[in-house]
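Incident review: delayed structure delivery

Summary: a single-chain prediction request sat in the queue longer than the usual turnaround. Root cause was a stuck worker, restarted by the on-call engineer. No data loss occurred. The affected request and its eventual output are reproduced below so the record is complete for anyone auditing the incident later.

Affected input:
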Amino acid sequence: MYHAILTTMKNSFNLIKKRVGKSSGGIMAAMAGGGQQDKPFFEVTVELNLNSEPNVVAKPSLDEVQDAINRTAVAILRSTKRLISWGQDRSADNTESFFDMLAAEKEVCKLVLLLTGSIEGAKKEVVDYLGSFEAHSYLWKNDMQREYSNFLKTEPSLEDFDDELSKYVKQEAAILEIPNEKNIGVLALDNAGIKTALSSFASMWKAQYAKNLLGIARKELETIVEYIKSTNLKFSINVEHLDDVRKLMTMLQEIREKESRIDWDFGPVEEKYELLQKYDVKQLSQDELFQVSELRTMWGKLKVLTNSVADQLGEKQAGFKNDLVNNVATFKTNVKGFRTDYEKNGPTQPNIKPYDAIDRLNKYDREFTELDRKYTMFNAGEVLFGMPQTQLDAMEKTGKEIKLLKQLYGLYQNVDNTVAEYNDILWIDVVSNIESMTTQVNEFQRQCKGMPRALKEWDAYEELRKKIEDLLESLPLLQYLSNKSMRSRHWNQVMEATGCTFKTVSYTHLRAHETPEHLVCRLLLEKKKKKKKCNKSPTNKWKLKNQETTE
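Output delivered after worker restart:
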């Protein structure tokens, strides 16, 4: 009985050893001997796991496979615990089984030990095979956005895009060539999962470049199509005035110039879409492919239209040329009258108030703008018909003067508006605002000094310069007068020196009652009453409200 059980157990271990001990080499393969290749004993899935190292792993792992073999050997050995030796009372509690005797057999122990290392022969080969997938590791390890950003920094050509897309297409093809199953010894490695993952990554990389190339191509296509459509609309205008002729002639010239470089405009767009079709980019729509195929046809229709417009203009040219000559003669008379009126009543007249000058400047600026528009149009017409261009010194001179005056009075108004804003600052807030006020006035002075020399000869410039200097002189005085150490006797001295009278309020009283609206309103009304009286000192120009003192 014992020998029969021992023989059966050894045969079981030998059968397992024969199946699981086969590999490309190793001790177990030598012991198992040659023979026909059996079907792999274990199925293992090759997967991509970004949270492990290495990233390509087998599931279940080789250790888990070996553990399963070990548990099988132990289960076979433990099964003999239920086999009771003959000659014993089976109802007794202390019966002996064949387990202890079999476990002590050297040959059984040897077979069990051999099975515990049965996978070692295939382990290195499996690890090497999993490591072969590292050739594709850049697909999941490299930062896609950073790589593409670096690619764009090289200002890539269409050929560069082609190279990148081709690289990922070849990568996809190489991944598809990976066998679906790889047999190593008793292990059958299923590659379906890893192939799917790698193909997805390769497609994402290809889509990144294809998507951006498609975006560039679409933008270029839209620009060309929009240009052709808008130009067609522009040529549909009725030719009634010289300005219409000028616009059409300008567009005709533009079309002639564009014709010489049409291949440079259309070619890159056509090549980009051809490349995108080559790599079967799914985002391509049939509408845009149709537009690309019709680009040159659309351009041909536009050329036919431009030739028709050119013929019409040729027929009307003589009439427009005569009108131009008459209009230029009338225009010269109008410019002469405008200049005479400008010199007599314009903003440069002496002894006029600044804001009167500003009103006059605005009036003459509007009239000059209209004249300048016609001047430009007539000059363009003269160029169009090959006539000598009319040059009017009055227009050039007036244009320069108005530009300088706008610069001068623009600063004048800015200074005046700023002073008006200062008038709204409460006396108790002067100290906290004095620094920003000084900075702003210094900037006014810098702008004033930086004006063209021609402006510095005008009376308005001198008035502006003095206004700014008075402000700079007044600001330090305001800072001193707003000091808390000011007493009634000091204010009396200020009133005596300036010849102005105003009611002072103690600092303590003002701080205690400045929040209620009725007090603030009353103080504001009192200051408005003093407005006409206090006009001799530069400080009084601020119209500062709620004089703040301490007694």
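Verification: Residues 24-35, 506-522, 535-551 have pLDDT under 50 and may be disordered.
Action items: add queue-age alerting; document worker restart procedure.
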